[in-house]
Amino acid sequence: MLPNTGRLAGCTLFITGASRGIGKAIALKAAKDGANIVIAAKTGVPHRTLPGTIYTAAEEIEAAGGKALPCIVNVREEDQITEAVDQAVQKFGGIDILVNNASAISLTGTLETPTKKVDLMMSANTRGTYLTSKICLPHLKKSKIGHILNISPPINLNPVWFKNHCAYTISKYGMSMCVLGMAEEFRGEVAVNALWPQTAIYTSAMDMLGGAGVEKQCRKTDILADAAYCILTKPKSFTGNFVIDEILLREEGIKNFDPYAVAPGHPLLPDFFLDVDPDTLAMKMEAQGASPTFKEGKMQDVPKRDGPDKTKPDGPERTGLHVHFASENATGPVANTFKIIKGAINEDVVKSTQGVYRFELSGEEGGTWYIDLRNKGGSAGSGEPPGKVDVIMSMSSSDFVKMFSGKLKPTMAFMSGKLTIKGDMALAIKLEKLMGQLNAKL
Prior knowledge:
Elements: E1 12-16, H1 21-31, E2 36-41, H2 54-63, E3 67-72, H3 78-92, E4 97-100, H4 115-140, E5 147-151, H5 160-163, H6 166-185, E6 191-196, H7 204-210, H8 222-232, E7 242-244, H9 245-251, H10 278-287, E8 317-318, E9 321-322, H11 333-344, H12 347-353, E10 355-362, E11 367-373, E12 379-382, E13 391-396, H13 397-404, H14 410-415, E14 420-423, H15 425-438
Parallel strand pairs: 1-2, 1-4, 2-3, 4-5, 5-6, 6-7, 10-13
Antiparallel strand pairs: 8-9, 10-11, 11-12, 13-14
Region (Disordered): 288-318
Protein name: Hydroxysteroid dehydrogenase-like protein 2
Main location: mitochondrion
């Protein structure tokens, strides 16, 4: 890991969202040099599910060797930013470094993203970064160090990063555009750069988005803290860069990245906005025992499309359960997959899942298929499912077969744009358990 050099001793860092996660990790790294840290975050009292407050973070920072100023700051509120900046200047004499880390996320499609979520992401991510930078800049221009660091991605115009979560992507790219503009506007006065992780980073947000077991596929926040430290100790001439943590640290001589891994040796998930070959990655992950999960997060209900009534099951009876399969005599990979799915349905699966899934498949054997794991004894087949639909998954028929046979992991399919999901994402996670049971049979 990257050693401290003492070069940030006495420097004042204004870090948004520093009460936990990446922001706090950067603060603690600087604190080891004896830096002053302004903890600009919303959490003044303990959150019901998330760890840490600005005050507990302050205790950790001072224990690490730094000085802390905890400030209640919602970056959507200009007055709160201004007040915190004034307090920082009064207490520490100025501001040398700004880290725009605070961010909101909702990985939902255009029709599934409520307006208030759109407003939150745009105002916290893009507007919050712009405002905080604007208010800090007069002080940063007076500093010999003068640096702004945004935790935002390189701007990648591949449509795959827009199609599944357009609002979130726009808001994060807004932060990156601040880097492009301000780096040129203040060249020679203040350095402005962006930092983004090569792989998923384990934080409280990742717990909510990634599901159970995701931590093994992540790196610790330490890697971003080390990369940020490296950037912030460079001269002002280092500006306008979109830095990837692993690439930078390799250039700095770091060769062993195991200390940064939550589970050393375990394959890692790539982060958003960085193009990789998802099929190749999924095969590597599977070979090493990884089990990527769907993202969690309740979305709007999906209305059921009009279709024939299939509430009355027919077909073969097994162990007292009626299982409907509309294409019993159909052949082909998709039909065969659904036959195996049908055979795996039992009372325990239906009881533990309680969801109805519709699959809109393209290509050979394309059309509408479903798995009902809520009504009566459960059912599976082609055509419209019975009752209310909880989750709609759209993909090619060949990728569907790969996904259920374990050759294409759901997370990789989703991130690469091969799989579109609408509806209840928590129920999408539950479906993965059934996939695990089927892998050996397909």
